[in-house]
Design goal:
Helices cover 61% and strands 9% of the residues. The chain is mainly alpha-helical and 106 residues long.
Length: 106
C-alpha cells in the first residue's frame, strides 16, 4: 500500500515537537517514532508499527537509524524492545552537528 501521512495522535504538541525535531535533521517518521517511544516508554517494533501505522520493516529501519544516532536504545529479548533516550540528551546530540555546520560556514 502507498505510504500515508502518519497521523499525530496527540494533536498540536506532537506537531510542534515533530517540526522541531525535523529542523534538526530527523525525518517526520523518525520524529514520530521517537516521540511515540518518549510518550509510551519501551516498545517492540510490532507495537510501534501498529501505533504509528507504519510497516514493521520500516519501523526496524527507523529504530536502527535512531539507535545509531544515540536517540534510542535496543534491549535484547524476544521481542527486542526499544527505549528512548531522554529528550534533553537527544536535543544536545542533535544541536552539536548543527552548531558545527554553522561555524564551518562563517
Amino acid at each position: 500500500h502507498p505510504y500515508q501521512a502518519v497521523p499525530l495522535t496527540h494533536g498540536r504538541m506532537d506537531e510542534r515537537a515533530v517540526k522541531l525535531l525535523t529542523q534538526y535533521g530527523l525525518s517526520d517518521r523518525e520524529s514520530t517514532i521517537y516521540l511515540h517511544l518518549l510518550a509510551n516508554g519501551s516498545r517492540g517494533a510490532g507495537e510501534i508499527a501498529r501505533a504509528v501505522q507504519l510497516r514493521r520493516m520500516e519501523v526496524y529501519r527507523i529504530v536502527k537509524a535512531l539507535s545509531e544516532r544515540g536517540m534510542v536504545v535496543a534491549s535484547p529479548g524476544k521481542p527486542v524492545k526499544y527505549a528512548p533516550e531522554p529528550i534533553e540528551a537527544v536535543i544536545a546530540l542533535l544541536i552539536s552537528p548543527v552548531e558545527t555546520e554553522c561555524s564551518i560556514e562563517t
